[in-house]
Every structure is written in structure tokens, then in C-alpha cells.
User: Fold these one by one.
Assistant:
Number 1:
Amino acid sequence: MDKIETYSFTVEPFHVDFTGHLFMGVLGNHLLNAAGRHSHNRGWGIDQLNENHYTWVLSRLSIELTEMPAQYEHVEVETWVESVMKLFTERNFMIRNADDGRIYGYARSIWAMIDTATRHPADLLALKDGDILNYLLTNEEKPCPIDKHGRIRVKASKATRTIPTFYSDVDINGHINSIKYIEHILDLFPREQFEQNRIRRFEIAYKAESYMDDTLSFFQSDDDANQLEIRKNVGNTDHLQGETVVQAKVVWTK
Amino acid sequence: MDKIETYSFTVEPFHVDFTGHLFMGVLGNHLLNAAGRHSHNRGWGIDQLNENHYTWVLSRLSIELTEMPAQYEHVEVETWVESVMKLFTERNFMIRNADDGRIYGYARSIWAMIDTATRHPADLLALKDGDILNYLLTNEEKPCPIDKHGRIRVKASKATRTIPTFYSDVDINGHINSIKYIEHILDLFPREQFEQNRIRRFEIAYKAESYMDDTLSFFQSDDDANQLEIRKNVGNTDHLQGETVVQAKVVWTK
């Protein structure tokens, strides 16, 4: 089995923003689909693991792009596993144009495996007799030339926005969908931000689960509105309190 | 050229709700993709028409299902044109399981063509020397055994919800995305509604455009919360006033 999975998609009309480029959330969705396909085809898919009461949990996702795919473009995502530790594995992605091969960018992600009964992390190296080690491609073998996940620092005196969560926010596990957080985060920024800039890098860290009917408060850092936290069910949004669900950082370029 | 286009998709993990079934909005998106594919392959695609300053505008969409596709199922959408009048065309859809052929349901839609410069409707029968008539399949030739679009009646004394619109609501034309309206409408209903029922029929009528930064007020009819209107920039939401953007009707079943 090849260590790299290639996943293809076409940029659909309803998946582009007002500039004609793919929504970051939809790109994130495609990356997660590619990851799911890679895992499944190697016996590590959620559907296969569920039988054994394990599931993958996404911990970090960082996407860095020199260009965002545009409407009707044909895109290929390559994905592979860079490393495995006991409790975490690093999965990387390359995103390129399927017709001319130009590279839009790369992404990095970190995943844990948890036991769905106990919610405890599983030992990735012990599962399936260490089979996961058969799929490693080091950064020398298959480069992913973007920075690893950085530290996100948020000092915020007040929530920018507080929103309820509804039916369409929730996934099959009853959790707020990983992709919906990305949408809600980018919805904090005004039209002009997207007219005058594009996102060069987007980082997100998933810290805790939230559920339908939870309230999400978005705290943008006082000194940098592009570093932010989502906290759930914060009664008084004048202070940075409550449980952190997600942290994120957006890096813009002209 | 065959008069029927077949469009295939797999129900992705992030496209299902907490019951494990495809979101209605995502199904709508797939239907619109199928319509776009059918049109394009017959020389009537938006990309081809744009060169001549014409574009398709969706006026009505009614979806009726005996079953909603579930996660990982393989789905085929057949689409064809049932009729053409001067200013409108009726396009139908059949949605079936690609593996065992069972039919999930059908959909009907009505489209107009407008001149993007003048915003006036175009004469569909005059364009391309009446070429569109080559693709008709009457209801006898290709049945679509669901009711045509009904009348949606809303008498509401107060808006149920008023929401701002943001970056992720907007499509490449700067309009609130047709699919996002479906999401926002279904978000009016509580979790229990989806736990205890499924949607048997969903009807939506697109009446006017709304734009990023518009405010959308949702008026559910006093006598039937499943018939509703979205109105934009309604200052005082105690009355049914302002311009109607969308009307919709949801029919539930156990």
C-alpha cells in the first residue's frame, strides 16, 4: 500500500466566497475527507476503529497557502503520516492543482486516538501490533515546508461576539462540527478584510467539545484580533472565563 | 445528447446531522450541482451563458423524500427538464441509492434566465434558436411523482429570530447563498423536532436577493410554525413588514 493517499475534488460554485475562492472551512472539510480516506484504506478508518471502540480526534490543524483554489478548479490533496508518538500522530497534506500541478499550499494536523467508552487516549503504537509505523514518511522523505503549529496567545477583556448553536452546527456525534468553528471564526471579520487580503495561514486547536444549545463566545486578543479563543457557556462575557473549546490564529497577506 | 444527466456523490461525514442523515441544505447543494452539470453539458451552463450576460436564477425548489441518505451511502441524482415556458423552465430530480437503486425521493425546481446587465428576464424560447426544447422530457416520459410547488401562506405577528449575515453566508455574486437560507431555516427548529421527526417535504421560494450585512428576520406563521418567511432589514420585528426574501414550508413525518 502506497504511503500517500491522493484525494481529488472540484471547487463547487456554492463552496466559494464572494471573491470566487474556496471557503477555508470547505478546504478543511476536504482535508479531513482525505485523511479519512487515507486511514480507511489502510485499516485505520473511524468506521473500522469504531468496532473496537476507538475513534480519531483532531487536535490541531494548520493550513498555509500561497493561493486559494478558485471556482471550478480541479484540486488534488495528498496526505500522509509524518510521525507517530504514543498518544499523537502528525498527518500532513499537500494541496495542488490537478491540471497544471501548481501547489496551492500545505497543511499539518495532529490527531489522537481515544477509547469511546472511557474517553481515554489510546496507545497508537500498541494498536494493531504497531501497524501504523508501516505508513510513516519523514519530512526528509516527503517534505511539508510549512511551520509546525504555533502557540496561540489570547488576552481578551471582552467577547467580540456570542452566538447560540443550532441544528446545522452539530455533527453525527452531537458535537459542534470541527468545520463549523472555522466558519464562525472567519465570520468575525468584516467584508473589507476579505476584499483587501487573503488568508496566508490558518491555525486551529481543538481543546474541548461543545454541543448543540451551548453558547459560544469569541474572544479576540486585545493586542491582536487575529488570535482568538472560543469559550462555551460563558455567563459574563466581560471576562475571559469559562471553558476554552477552540483557539485559532489567522495570518493575512495582501 | 441524453436528456438526463446523472450526478453521483457519497454522503460525507461532515455533511450529516446528529441523526447520521444528510443535511437538507447539502442535498440542495448536490441538486444544484447536478442542475449545473446538466446545463453545462448541453451548452446552457452559467459559465457559457455569462459570456452572453445571462444567468440562471433559481425561483422555487421542492424536495420530497421517503428517506434521507445516510452517512457513507452512494447517491445518484438524475435531473432533466420537464417543461419550458417563455420566462421559466421546470427542472426535476430523482434521488436514488447508487448501490441498490432504491429511491430516496424526488425534487422539482423552477428557474428563470436573467440578463445580468438589465436584470430583466430573458426569453428562454428565443435563446440559442430554441435549443432548450431539444431536452424536454414530459411527466409522461419521465415521471416526477411529487406535488408541484404549493402556496406558502404566512401570517405572523412577530419574528421568531433575527440574525445578521456574515462572510460565510455569501456566494460569488455577493448574494446570500441559496443553500445558507435552508440551513438558517432549519436552525429555527429545536433538537427534539429532528429527534422525533424527519422532513418529508421541504419547499422554498426565492423572492428577492439579500446581501452580506443585511439582517434577516424569520417570521413563522402564527397558525403553522412550519410555514415561514425571511424578510430583510426589518427595523421593527413586531410586524410582518420589510421585503420578503424567501418563503419556505417544512412538512414533517414520524
Number 2:
Amino acid sequence: MNKFQVIILGCGSAMPTTMHHPPSQLVDLNEKLFMIDCGEGTQLQMKKFKARMNKLHSIFISHLHGDHIFGLPGLLSTLSILGRSGDLHIYAHKEINFLINPFLTYMGKYMSYKIKLFPLNPERQELLFENKSIRISSFPLKHRIATNGFLFEEKESPRHIIREMIDFYQIPFIRIAEIKEGADFVTPNGTVIRNNILTLPGNPPRRYAYCSDTAYAPEIIPYIRNVDLLYHEASFAESELARAGETYHSTARQAAEIAGAANAKQLVIGHYSSRYNELEVILKEAVAVFPNTELAGEGKVFGL
Amino acid sequence: MNKFQVIILGCGSAMPTTMHHPPSQLVDLNEKLFMIDCGEGTQLQMKKFKARMNKLHSIFISHLHGDHIFGLPGLLSTLSILGRSGDLHIYAHKEINFLINPFLTYMGKYMSYKIKLFPLNPERQELLFENKSIRISSFPLKHRIATNGFLFEEKESPRHIIREMIDFYQIPFIRIAEIKEGADFVTPNGTVIRNNILTLPGNPPRRYAYCSDTAYAPEIIPYIRNVDLLYHEASFAESELARAGETYHSTARQAAEIAGAANAKQLVIGHYSSRYNELEVILKEAVAVFPNTELAGEGKVFGL
């Protein structure tokens, strides 16, 4: 089974604290790293948790609040010092030009690689990227400015061939790939052996959804239904419900309700307000509604 | 005696490591914090070392390489979240507009305070700021791009009045301030008591010089002669002398030679290349030439 995991680099919020870094995480799929958000210090967090810069595939920015983007100049710069040659694709709302264009104007001629910007659609779900193993799309969240969540969907994996059947029917090596993709096998004497006799279904495709920053928004449920892992912001405890509403953030209970209504397998919460030194209350409130909840933490890895 | 100390927030160089943060330091004079350089993560380092954001007076940027400026957007943003109201003066080469103007265009209407930029003169020494206790000037260094060092000079402090003389001549309280500033005292019967009988000299003014980034440049010595504390970059050990020359950086021995030739009282070295996990060799090479040398380190405080 392919590696598919989420590495938390930062799970704090706008105000820096000594406990949490601003938002950033890596989706590690088969040794390709997809970065979501890039708060100040993200490149240092990558170093700290030994995430290899040369595995960085592309960057997805949920929205243009400073705590989600101020790590970009440093990271982009370091990639150039390291001699990256492949284009770097950044998916973000089009106003990110305010940050990237001046940077490129200033650093441009020294850059070892090209940056390509792809604008996010803040209105509806849109496919951003796909290759043979993954499909990445964005969908709208509900925040003070245009904000998108991201959905990482593994593609259907090849069927598992049953070794005993290879031996029994003396299937030549050259046929294996097509059988894994669903083809039947025709024996030298013309007998057709149905694929479902030769193979077992592949691993069920796994799905990861990232929802931060967002107010409580049941309208996102169709996008994230049945995900294996849901990261949902939980900036506040229930005692700050009014504050959460005003600032378009969520409480832990609200995050858990979304996870439950979406039938997620597991919930990870983060984007903690700087007012919380202890996160027990946040976790407790979420677990009461959705038991399979974990707290995000810098350096924590969540496998799917 | 006024507090006058230098707090190291970061003393690494361009490539981030898990050991050193990019350059930034605070000159703490009488509870006013003057920041020199602002690499990525500086605001987090301030938090870590409990430097109070509301004491930040102004910012001095030596040059516009990323490792010296990428912490600015985050810091400027946080100051606004905290509700700073006083203008913030930033002294930097005029091309810093590339970074600050887009930031202000984007964040401007949400900012709680005004930023004022003052261009540095890369050609000659220039007074940047003075108040009753300090004079801050910039002077040219020798690097790949326009780069300035900074000199913090305490002003002459008031003379110390001799308590016994107050009693002896029954000097009224209202006369004390002028006597500390050098006035004589005239007794009720008209006798003039010379100031030098009533007072002792004030503390000798202290001076701090910051020289980073720079190649070995004896031409800076006139600017930093007799300083109490010299911070001089020492990116490399002597084995990398050629590399130091090519990149317009200094070796530890060269930093020590400058300190010696300038008759500095103490030398602090930093801006270590990321290739050094151990700094013993760097320190040893400097101490061999200038014994009163110390290594900079994150969180270290050097009093003058």
C-alpha cells in the first residue's frame, strides 16, 4: 500500500506562541510532499522534522491571511539556494500576486527554478491536480476572506493478483499488468478466465480533507463525506462560541459535529487560538461529540 | 547606569539549520528595543526570549538579503494585531519598498499603526536617530549588495553629584539637575563653588557596533574604533578563506583582526555558515588573535 500520511508542521493561529507554529502541513503520498499553507517558519519546521525539501511537489494555500503565507518567501528562496530546477506550482487565490510578484521581481534573476501560480476558485469545487495515484481538488469554506479547503483523493489502486492463480494458469509475466487493471486471461487453448477469479479488489482509495480556516459550515459536508481523515480547525472551546462566530472560526464541538455529519473515519483538530495553554478542554469537547478525534501537534504524523 | 545590552535572536546565515535562526538581534537600551535585522521567525524568537513587543522602538536592516528581512511581514502584522499605535520607523536601503509596499497595499487598511521608511546611505556614515541617551548611525560595509553596519553610541551621561557636598553646602533640590549637567553652585552669600568640587564624571559613554554581512574590510575601522562591544560576522573558519572572499563574508580570524585593529573591548562573532555543526574551530581561530571573543548564540545577552 502506498504511503499516505499528513505531517503537521504548525497548528497554531494568527498570534505566534512558544507552543505552536503558524499553520502548515505536508501531505506525504509516495514520497511526494504536497504542502498545505505556509506560515512563518515553515522551512525551519521542515528541517526540524526532517522533511526533505527536494521532495516538495507543490503548495496549496487555503487563504491569504498572513499566518498562512508568511513562510513562503523564505521557503521559495531556500529552494533556489538548494538548486531546485523543476517548476514549483502554487495553488492560491489570485491576490497572492501581491506577495509573489514583488518577490520574483526582486529575486527573479537569481532563482534556480520557475514558480507557476494557479488561481483557486472560491465559489465551487475544482480539480487542481491529478496524476496516476492522486486527485487534488479545492472547495469553498466560510471565512472572512475567500478561503478554500482541499481534498486529497487516492485513485483506485490496481487489483491484487492471486499468486496461486498465476501458477495454476501459468500466466506469463507480460500479462500481469493488464490483469491487475481488470483484464481477463485467455489460455493458449482459448479458454477465457474471468478477472474476478484471478484477482482480489485493490485497496480502497483513501481520502483526506483539510478545512481551515472556517466558520461552522454544514454546506461543506458534501465535499468531505466519508473521508478517512478530516483536519478541521477548532480555534476555540465552546465558551468562546460567540467569538468563533464573529471571527468566522469554529469551536471544537462544531468541528466534531461536521466530522460526524460527514461520516469521517477520524478527525484531527488544530488552529488553536493563542489563548489556550492547555488543549484538554478543546479535545474533551470534540471527543464528546466525535470520539475518534486527535489533537494536531507540531511533528505529529497521521497515517491514512 | 542605564541598561545597555544586546540580545541575540538569531545568528545563523542564509541556509536555515536546526541550530541557528537567521539574523536578528535587539539592542536594549533603557527598556527601549532597537531591532537589527529581522530574519524569518524573529517574532517567534522574541516570544521565546520574552522580549516585549510593545518595547520595540525601531528596526534597522543591514541589507536586503532574504535571511535578514523575511521576518518583517510576520512581525509587522503581529504588532498590528497587538494594537500598536505609535509609528514604526524602519531604516533600510530604499529597495525595501519591494517588500513593504505590497505588504502595506494588502494589509494597509487593517494596520493599527503607520510604518515610516528611512533610506540608508550605502556610501558614507550617517546619523539615523538620536534622543537624550543614544545616537545611532550607519556606515558602509563591504558585501555583494549595498550593506551597512550600525553604531549605537550612548551619549555622555550626567555627572554624579557627591552626596556629602549637597549636605555640606546645603544645596537645594531645585539646583541638583543643573549641577549634574555641569553648573557651578552659588551659595546664598555669593561664593561660587566650582562644579568639579561638587561632582564626579558620569559613566563613560558606551558604544556598540554591528558589522554583518561583510567581507574583511579594514576601511570600517575608523567607524568602530574603541567600541565596547563589536558584533562582527564570522561566517567561515580559515579553511574556507577563499570561499569567504568570493561570497564577501569573513573568517573568524579576520573578524578578530578587525576587533584588534579597532581596539574593541569585546568581540562577539556570529552569522555562522550552515556547514558548521560545531563552532569550536571558529571560536578558537578568533581567540588566537583576539582573546576577548565570544560566540553569539540564540538567547545570549551581552551587556555593555
